[in-house]
Amino acid sequence: MSEKEYLVISRGKWDAKASKEEIQGAIDRFYVWLEGLVEEGKMKRGQRLSDRGKTVARKGVVMDGPFGESKEVIGGYWFIVAASLEEAAEIAEGNPCAEYGLFYEIRPIETERASAFVKTTETPSEVGSRNSEVGS
């Protein structure tokens, strides 16, 4: 089975009960963990995200804040290289920051171009239903 890339989105906030020293320890262990996986070819670096931003919707609609309707903080992203979504999740479970309140959304990277005729995450459910009927 060939390996694919998975986007990992870091979400959440640090545990309010954890000391700054405990959190810093988790951050330091994260960077050691990350570098080891990058060297193994199992991870690609991403970036931390600023708390500033804009959300752009339909033409002329721009809102302050990078989070849209999300009530969760998105702190950063990186990429895992794995043979399956399950393997990617197992790798992400090793992140030391998860012990202190952060959690991770893992999504396969789609390499094909978008199409209005193929069901995707952006496709309205009624269009997806029609497409599956047409393709049957």
Can you tell me about this structure?
There is one protein chain. The chain has 136 residues and is an alpha+beta fold. The protein has a single domain, classed as Alpha-Beta Plaits, CATH 3.30.70.1060. Helices cover 30% and strands 27% of the residues. It contains three helices and six strands; from the N terminus they run βαββββαβα. Strands 2-5-1-6 form a four-stranded antiparallel beta sheet. The longest helix has 21 residues, at 20-40. Mean pLDDT is 85; it is low at 127-136.
Radius of gyration: 18 Å
Share in helix = 25-40%
State the low-pLDDT regions, or none: 127-136
Q: How many E-type strands? A: 6
Strand content: 25-35%
Q: Largest beta sheet: what is the strand line-up?
A: 2-5-1-6
Major beta-sheet overview? 4 strands, antiparallel
Order of helices and strands: EHEEEEHEH
Structural class: alpha+beta
Q: Any idea what the CATH superfamily is called?
A: Dimeric alpha+beta barrel
The top level CATH class name: Alpha Beta
CATH architectural group: 2-Layer Sandwich
Mean pLDDT over all positions: 85
Number of domains: 1
Kindly, what is the distance between the CA atoms of the first and last residues, rounded to a whole number of angstroms?
28 Å
**Any idea of the CATH topology?**
Alpha-Beta Plaits
- Gross morphology is globular
Figure out the total of helices.
3
